[in-house]
Amino acid sequence: MTFKSSFLFCARSAVIIFFAVALTLTACGTVVQPEGGPSSSPLPSPSSASATPTPSPTPSGAYRPADSTGKAENVPLPVLPEAAKANTKEGLEAFARYWFQALSYGYETGDMTALKQVTGPNCVFCNGLQEAVGLAWADGKWIVGGQIETPVIEGKFTSGAESQQATIQVIHRSVAIHQPGGSLYQEPTKGSNRASQMVAKFGANGWTVIDLGLIR
User: Fold this and answer.
1) What is the secondary structure of 130-198 as a DSSP string?
2) pLDDT at 14 over 50
3) Model confidence pTM above 0.85
C-alpha cells in the first residue's frame, strides 16, 4: 500500500470529527510534534484567549442549527479580520482563530471554500479533514453539531523565519451525521477538547497553513 492510499484509508476510517481524524492520522505518522516536547494537558491562558471573536456577516435570515429534521440555515460566514493580515505574533494568532472558524463553518455547511483559500495544498492533515467532511456531506447527508471553539491560542513567532507555529486549544462539539429522511448514518461521535499545533507561512497573499497536527 502506498503512502497516499494508506493516508486516504486512515482519513476515511476516522469518524468524521476533527480529533478522531487526528488520532487516526497519528498512526499514519503525520502528527506535528512541537518544540519542547508533546503535551496533552490544557494550554495556559495567554492574553490572546480573551481576544474579540472574528466578526461575521449578518445572514439574510435567522441562524438555525442543524438537527435531525434538516441542515443548518443562515450560518454566518467567517470573515478574515484585519489583524490576521499582519506578519506578526498577533496576526498569526488571529489567523489561526479564523482558520478554525472556517473549519467549523465547513462542518456546519459542507462548504470548505473559505478553508481551502487559506490552506496549502501539501498540508496532509488539512486535506484529510476536508475529505472527511466532504464524505460526511455526500449523497444528501448532513452534519448536526461539529462546531469548533478555540479559547486559547499561543503563537510562537520568530522574526524573519520562513514559517511560524501556533499552539491552539480546540474544543469540538460532538458530530452526528444524518441521511435523507433524518435517520442517523452512524453512531454520533463524542466531542473533544485537545491541543493542536499549526505551522503557517506568510506570503504575498497573507497567511497559509502548511502543516497541522495533534499534540500528544
Assistant:
1) HHHHHHHHGGG-EEEE--EEEEEEEEE--TT-SSEEEEEEEEE--EEEE-TTS-BSSPPBPPEEEEEEE
2) no
3) no
